[in-house]
Amino acid sequence: MPEALSLAREAELDLVEIAPQANPPVCKILDYGKYRYELAQREKESRKKSTNVVIKEMKYRPKIGGGDFDTKTRKVGEFLADGHKVKVTIMFRGREVAHPELGMKILERIAETCGPSAKVEATPKLDGRNMVMVLAPDKKLVPIKAARHDPSPDDPAVHPPSSADSTPAPQAPAPLPAPPAAAPQPSLPTPAAAVATVTEGALAPPAQAS
Question: Which of 119, 144, 169 is the last residue of a domain?
Fold first, then answer.
C-alpha cells in the first residue's frame, strides 16, 4: 500500500479502491474527479435505457353492457400498445360473488380480444370480492408495431421526380404552310391608250345615210 501511494503521488493522481471485497483489495491509480464524472455518465445512460413500466387498472362489472365493454377493452389495448401492464378487475356485488364463472367469461373475452398484442401474465384469481387478471404487452410484437418504416433512397414516394425531369422537352414548331399563289389579274389599259381611243372615236365623221 505505501508503494502504491508513492506511485500515485509521483504521477499526481489518486489511489482509488475499486474492489474492496476482493482479497487482497483491488486499487487503481487514476484521476478521481474524472472517474466520478465517467461513473455518473454511465449511470445516466443506464437510466435512459431502462423502461418505466406502469401498471394500469381497468375495472369491469359482471353485468357490463356491450358498449361499455368495447370502450374499456379498447382502452386496455391502448395501454398495452404503449408498453404498460394492465390489471383487469371484475368487481362483484352482493350475491354476484357466488357466480365467479361470470367474471371468468369476461376476463377470457378480454384476453381473447387483446390476444394479438398481449399475453396473460397473471391468470384470473379471486381476491376477496374481486377477480383479478394481469395482462402484459407481448415484447415480440410491440417492437414490430413501433418500428418506423425506413424507405429506400430509390422510393419514388420519398424522392418524387423534379419538375425539370417531369416537364417534356420543348418540340420545334411545325413549319407554316406556304401562302397560296395569287391569281393573275387582267391587265388594264394604260391611261395614254385610253385617251387615244377616246380621241379617235370623237374625231371619226358620222356615217351618212344613203
Answer: 144
